[in-house]
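Reopening closed ticket. The problem is back. First fold of the pair:
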Amino acid sequence: MDLSGYQRCFPSSQIGTTMLSHAQAPASEMTIDSAPLNSFHKRLTLFSSGGPFLDGYILAIIGIALVQVIPAWQMNDWWNGLIGASALIGVFLGGLIFGNLTDKIGRKLMYTIDLMAIIVFSIAQFFVQDPWQLFVLRLLIGIAVGADYPIATALVAEFVPKNWRARLLGGLNAMWFVGATVAAFVGYWLLSLQDGWRWMLLSSAVPAILILIARATIPESPHWLVGKGRHQEALDILKKTIGEGATLEGITAHDPNAAKLSTAKAFKLVLTGGYLHRVIFISIFWTCTIVTLFSIYAFGPQILALFNLQSGDEANIGYGLINLFFLVGNVVALLVVDKLGRRPVLIWGFILSGIGLLFLALFPTAPLGLIALAFAFYAIFNGGPSILEWIYPNELFPTKVRATAVGLCTGTSRIGAAIGTFATPLALTHLGLSGTMWIAAGIALLGAAVSFFMAPETKGQNLEEAAALHA
């Protein structure tokens, strides 16, 4: 057992007696932070990653589906951008509304409701006949996905050991790229079918059903239960999930009035004092990370065609390979984030990915090999900011408003992403490829600047330490 982590779980007045008695304590005695990683933690993380997987799948599949939908419905740039951005608008609403509801009624119940909604709306997409119908359904799917983010990430943050928290939370975001990669190859396969786009959009119901079944075995968060005064129930869950020697040490007994915290008061707490500074920081860096990312995913085949990659098989295969580069970048960032720290991984990730976009802006007609290399450079180094989308929000806010804060930050980041996704086809038409890439590079470098001045370092801290406001 890591003694330094064990000491931090106790108030200072107990440190002396705790250290003296530690050698006599049963070897199996443990807290959430000091527990070894076990099969339950891995299962929880895998099942929780279903939300990010579906988000990546849903957004990437529309980029390929639009290749068939646009000529079939003779859609203009307005509807093209609106449908591409519809799920992002929904994520904004879902995160904003259901993050707070998750803090009120618990993580477990919301953990399954949102998936049921994704299944129903995904199936309904198969039958749409007009652009407005597709827009509405993708908006509703986005709301359900936005609800899942604060639910699933809060559960992982509140269950896993301290030394594994960053890697497992960051791993959730990596699954976004797994979902997008799978969607790229599924979409490529289904393009050969007449009205293959309908099957593409329907296909998101399949993983959603599997994830829904798997999540039935996941219990409520002990942190949330303690915050509601349900200590025995929390202890029973810990004994089942991390071992019979589990204790509630290290879980702060939150304000007993937290259970009665109104929606208005929850948002007020998140938007006041030092927490407002954190909301602003997270919202800006998250927005800067995903504006360019989501635009490339929503319109990847169209963008690649402009880079001398002809539309059709060549562009779609290139689209799938870019997805793999994004995934590689996430894996590399996960391996170094606990060694290098949150700040350097975030700041240098923005700088280096921005350089890749800058090359594309300066040399849009460069040889195909250099274009591919620049895209790979951007995709790989975007992994740093990407994995921190889930690490920072869950570490920087207390349990009683964690899901509210994560939902708020998710929602605000999606406003910019939705605007960027909606504007991408318009920008490509009116500013050209080079002008669009200049804007993308500027957004990445803005993220680096904001992170340099605002990003805190939470490496090595437990949840209570990371969320604490310091004078």
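Second fold of the pair, where the issue appears:
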Amino acid sequence: MNVSADIRALVQRRKAGHSLEAPFYLSDEIFALDMEAIFRQHWIQVAVEPDVPEPGDYVTVELGQDSILIVRDDDMQVRAYHNVCRHRGARLCNEDKGTVGNIVCPYHSWTYKLSGELMFAEHMGEKFDRCKHSLKSVHIENLAGLIFICLAKEPPDFAPMRAAMEPYLLPHDLPNTKVAAQVDIIEQGNWKLTMENNRECYHCVANHPELTISLYEYGFGYQRSPANAEGMEAFEQTCRTRAEEWEAMKLPSAEIERLLETTGFRTQRLPLDRSGESQTLDAKVASKKLLGRFEQADLGGLSFWTQPNSWHHFMSDHIVTFSVIPLSAGKTLVRTKWLVHKDAREGVDYDVKNLTAVWNATNDQDRALVEYSQRGAGSSGYEPGPYSPFTEGLVEKFSAWYVRRLAEQIGA
């Protein structure tokens, strides 16, 4: 791939253990490289299976110049296609979501089955071969209800992440949930700042009073000192005790950390504070109808991070998913979905305001932090600063993963 000498030099001189140089957050040229090297070559989490519960249900996802159509077919399989008619390239589905019987182009009415085959194209003559004009498929993987797509001709191997994560995710039975709420926010910041902010909780105590109600202070990295040694030991003992209980219930909890692999991911189940059941303002369940076959509410919080664009929190009563989509060098979409059991009744089993309160507040606080960082990166006084080895190790692994992918793409 042709890139400028300046970009090549930036990639080559990246200093481990430090934040990235300013152009990584500001440059339109690097943003274009990000879209090609990252978002066109890797597995991107874009949806959940309950987004398309019935045949004909669809959602559209915009990745740079590409619009992707995700639809459930008549055999209940979730499929992904380029949202482009094979006639003259018109956009097929122009809403964020909807329901169709067949996929019909609004321009000349070329009509496709949900399985992608062209079934009707008027006035094309006897020699026209419909079989050569099916919709162009996009690689898709369904990981226990989380939908990933990849635009590459040859996508990275998904099997290792599936093998590791299915035992953790399947007990929460995401396919038998429903989307109780979705909130899209636009952050005026680079997508990497959004991801870096997510990968650490150094900032949590000072900035997230709602979130830290249910999170142990020591749960995401801390420097041990005489002042906190007793508290850290108590937390570690709680983790060991609860892990034994969960393992006996066939709920895996041990940390898996493979963030530097091509299809990078990490997971861990941790206890919630205050005898916590869920990530709510009182640490109690937000939905009375528990997920899957759960009969016990205090099952901790299972966190799942993927490179490059998602994180998720699985609890006994609900699931929160986050998908990050770059819009420009300085603008990022953060899409949050809250899922509850498909039979849970709004106003009876759960209240949407209570369900969403913690992460609506946290997302808004994080948006402000990302925007502070974006503005700071544009200052002549900015230079890469050192990561904390105790609380920002996952930020370093995200940055190292990212720079390695760019280097592979440009041959640096």
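Update: turned out to be a display glitch only; the data is intact. The longest strand covers residues 177-187. The two ends are 10 Å apart (CA to CA). Please close again.
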